Automatic annotation (TrEMBL):
This is Lipase. The active site is at residues 204, 372, 401. It comes from Forsythia ovata. Residues 70-128 form the Partial AB-hydrolase lipase domain. The keyword Nucleus does not apply.
Length: 431
């Protein structure tokens, strides 16, 4: 997408972060004609689909014919097994366990590692490149006991014990529930099966989940160390043009007001939006840059393959929570408004996740990039000041947000550093 379509001026960026216009569009007239047209087109598409959103046809997905093991991991020659576990609020999560291409699932493994994906992604994100470029394959071939996490709502999970995906209540969650329910349960499951504390690796939203979860004593005691790619807790200095524009439009509040609770860009309405935004008028490579920052080494020749798996669904409430973080500059639980906050939390404002509660004994490694428009360096510095410990840091000046996951050079630039970090800690087996 060209900068003339979605690139706000520096003044507009300041307003989007620090002084948002009153809902719905007090400053709409400041938008260019092209920007206004895009806004109308987006909302029109949403309005057209909101009426029948609860119909099965509107929720149609490109469902995989097989599990992640069968579809993506085993064809590359890696033994893989499917696992299920249930959260305390009834969601049935899918996990995959992967071992070396030269090994056997029944043989003794090294330390367990749990991989936690980002927003609109799932466990397949760690296996989308070749076997010598994808972190999931690299870890398995280095002898680690690889576990692949998939949060609720993604296509590798298995629904809910009583709710249907057509139910509004099914989508009533944000990354807060990812952290306190999904990640807690995935860590507990791996810890129980392996009888070992585990290493955690998260990317993007996976780092939000991880850092929030690590403030909880019962979760962090099962973790031996964590490596965080593009670590995020605060979002008030992001420079992502598209994200800032959508925040200024109050896009998250509009879709909730329209009764849309699932964000599924493989549904009928989601496909219409993507087709509209990625037709001949728009450069989709630049649209990606407007979301993530300029990626130096992203393999754009494989984008058609990536799109066979991505994006995965998430909830409108999750997007709303992330946009709250941008508007309010906090790392806190979901803000329901004063009175609902009082009812739910016993206070007018949502409780903050206190990063100082993460024990200094937990070894942390963080990789971040100079071109990352989402995991901003200023926000990371804010995070580091609140932590008790001093994480090992890797800074790559030319890396954007996706480079840490899908760079053609990520093995040499990033993954080998993670392996060195984990190997320096020895095993994390429980006593």
């Amino acid at each position: 997408m060209s900068a003339t379509v979605l690139g706000p001026s520096s003044t507009a960026v300041t307003e989007a972060v620090g002084g948002l216009p009153a809902f719905p569009y007090r400053k709409t007239m400041e938008l260019s004609v092209a920007q206004a047209a895009l806004t109308v087109a987006l909302l029109s598409s949403l309005l057209l689909s909101a009426e029948d959103f609860n119909d099965a046809s509107s929720l149609r997905r490109k469902s995989p014919v097989a599990g992640l093991c069968t579809q993506l991991i085993e064809p590359s020659g890696f033994p893989c097994s499917e696992h299920k576990t249930q959260t305390k609020d009834g969601f049935i999560l899918g996990l995959q366990r992967v071992s070396s291409s030269s090994g056997n699932l029944r043989k003794q493994r090294g330390s367990p590692v749990l991989l936690i994906h980002g927003l609109f992604m799932a466990g397949d994100a760690w296996f989308l490149d070749t076997t010598n470029q994808s972190l999931g394959f690299i870890l398995a071939d280095r002898g680690f006991d690889v576990w692949v996490g998939n949060v609720r709502g993604t296509r590798w999970c298995h629904g809910h014990v009583s709710l249907s995906e057509k139910d509004r209540e099914f989508w009533d969650w944000s990354w807060q529930e990812y952290a306190l329910y999904d990640l807690r349960e995935m860590i507990r499951y791996v810890y129980t099966v392996t009888n070992s504390r585990l290493f955690v690796i998260g990317h993007s939203q996976g780092t939000i989940m991880s850092l929030a979860a690590f403030t909880q004593p019962d979760i962090v005691e099962m973790v031996g160390a964590a490596a965080l790619l593009c670590p995020i807790t605060y979002l008030n200095h992001i420079t992502a043009r598209l994200a800032l524009r959508l925040v200024k439009m109050h896009f998250d509040q509009v879709i909730l007001a329209l009764g849309i609770h699932e964000l599924n860009f493989k549904s009928d309405w989601g496909t219409r939006i993507m087709d509209m935004m990625c037709d001949r008028r728009v450069d989709c490579d630049d649209m990606l840059t407007s979301i993530t920052g300029k990626n130096c080494c992203f393999n754009s020749s494989r984008i058609d393959f990536y799109l066979e798996y991505e994006p995965h669904p998430s909830s409108a409430k999750n997007l709303n929570h992330l946009f709250q973080m941008i508007r309010e500059g906090t790392f806190a639980m979901y803000d329901y408004g004063r009175w609902k906050n009082m009812k739910r939390y016993g206070q007018l404002k949502p409780p903050k996740f206190d990063l100082s509660q993460i024990p200094s004994s937990l070894p942390l490694w963080m990789g971040y990039g100079g071109n990352d428009a989402l995991a901003d360096i200023t926000d990371l510095q804010h995070t580091l000041k609140e932590l008790q410990s001093k994480p090992d840091l890797l800074y790559l000046e030319n890396y954007g947000h996706l480079d840490f996951l899908l760079s053609t050079r990520s093995k040499e630039d990033v993954y080998d550093r993670i392996l060195t970090f984990f190997n320096s800690l020895g095993t994390v087996r429980s006593y």
